[in-house]
Write a structure and sequence with these properties.
- 4 copies of one chain form a homotetramer.
- The mean pLDDT of chain A is 94.
- With 152 residues, chain A is α+β, with helices and mostly antiparallel strands.
- A 6-stranded antiparallel β-sheet of chain A has the order 1-2-4-5-6-3.
- The first copy, chain A, starts with 10 loop residues before the first helix and ends in an 8-residue tail after the last strand.
- Chain A contains 3 helices and 6 strands.
- Chains C and D meet through helix 2, helix 3 and strand 3 of C and helix 2, helix 3 and strand 3 of D.
- Strand 3 of chain C pairs antiparallel with strand 3 of chain D.
Amino acid sequence: MTGFVPKNPDFEARVRDSFARQGAMALIGAELAHVAPGAVDIAVNFRPELSQQHGFFHGGIVGTAADSAGGYAAFSLMPADSSVLTVEYKMNLIAPADGERLIAKGRVIKPGRTLTICQVDVFVVRGGREHRCAVLLQTLMTMSGRNDGPKE
Amino acid sequence: MTGFVPKNPDFEARVRDSFARQGAMALIGAELAHVAPGAVDIAVNFRPELSQQHGFFHGGIVGTAADSAGGYAAFSLMPADSSVLTVEYKMNLIAPADGERLIAKGRVIKPGRTLTICQVDVFVVRGGREHRCAVLLQTLMTMSGRNDGPKE
Amino acid sequence: MTGFVPKNPDFEARVRDSFARQGAMALIGAELAHVAPGAVDIAVNFRPELSQQHGFFHGGIVGTAADSAGGYAAFSLMPADSSVLTVEYKMNLIAPADGERLIAKGRVIKPGRTLTICQVDVFVVRGGREHRCAVLLQTLMTMSGRNDGPKE
Amino acid sequence: MTGFVPKNPDFEARVRDSFARQGAMALIGAELAHVAPGAVDIAVNFRPELSQQHGFFHGGIVGTAADSAGGYAAFSLMPADSSVLTVEYKMNLIAPADGERLIAKGRVIKPGRTLTICQVDVFVVRGGREHRCAVLLQTLMTMSGRNDGPKE
């Protein structure tokens, strides 16, 4: 329960449709684990292709999953005729992303007509337990009257 | 010419060796385009697998290339018996990453015994011209006495 | 209740003593409203001298109170013979700081031997109610064997 | 020479007028040292009232000067009927702000209709020489049709 009322009743279908068009999500093997108004989780199972030099999840992969989780959390609250754009994010990697699965939990902390602010907490699952490994603050922009589809 | 004197004369071999062990760099098709003391460029050619929903480079892929570019710029100045860790970064996406190639240019702006600060400028090549599409500020940590190899 | 066990039983006296030496805290009229292990609140009453051009608290004043709140939250968990240094922070101003009082609540989210990560939520009190107006992610460093007093 | 063409020929008067209404700038003794299209410098002479516990400029004061320098650099390029708002900034403190004078140099790196991105480099003057002590990335928003004056 996030307490947010989506402007678009079809928000979940829109999030899932847009996610399916992100080549980068397929590349890293990401899945949409949870979609609610203002709250989206994205999960990624570990593969050696996702590693940095020590064999943990690469910080950039953590950031990629987190950027999309926050982006879709924001997008879930936007009007039907709009698109979402990441303005910026800042990520602190607070523990090694050493585990079998990554879960990025994007949450809107301040929705707005033009700008939306999200916090994303990223957890790594190790031995069945979730450990927080990263935290992000992210700013997103509503692109009004801009279809969310591919460039033409 | 960066003006930095590397503590380890073998810095380039160490950077190339560590880069080769990052599964995530192979996954996104990244190459080390330039390695100098305190300055590392990483380039990525566009493929649909690297896209967000509009068909541009995904912000997370931009961040992944940039995180490694800054990380290896910092690593190039570290002593031989150390390893590098990204503490945090903040990225502003200032223009659509719409182009055929991405070049992340990591530059040390403040080396330190424990912490190193980098700026990374990311350019997208479109029609043969470089356009800056992102800028990062990044904090990295020297892990002394810690081999840069895989976890044991 | 933060669940943190301070390394120094005199943590509160050390925080209060260091705070008293920060000229900037007196200049803006800041007071230490709460000191617990890993959790420090700093409050500032509004005066026109603290304003930006619209008459609200200036973003820099919000950042000044927040930087010290997070810094002292981190310092409260550090050993007796150490000092604290802000490495970096990122602040999102999520609502106008329009009110009669500001309360910056610094909380350690990841303590560490060398680096500590804090989140700071800043609230503005308006009509007796707290409204969150800013959120920060902050990285702090323990300076071991470095007295917290003035430069010599 | 910044290469930017201001939308408002009276940009300098507007910047100076708005600056004069920021109580916080007077409180810390800040002066407008340079105003050009997309480039504003703010200088602050040291006083003990601006210090942290070691007697250097407080990080929050560095941030306050820098936030206004970047904010006015952005504002200098905005249309006449608008106001500027800081969305967020991230600051790395890269050296102790130990000196007799602080100069925050705000530069627009990407102007936009809605959002403007600035980099701010902050220097401390010590023994007559400028040393860079902080670097910021900052996002600002144009508030169209919103007078820059006090709240009514």
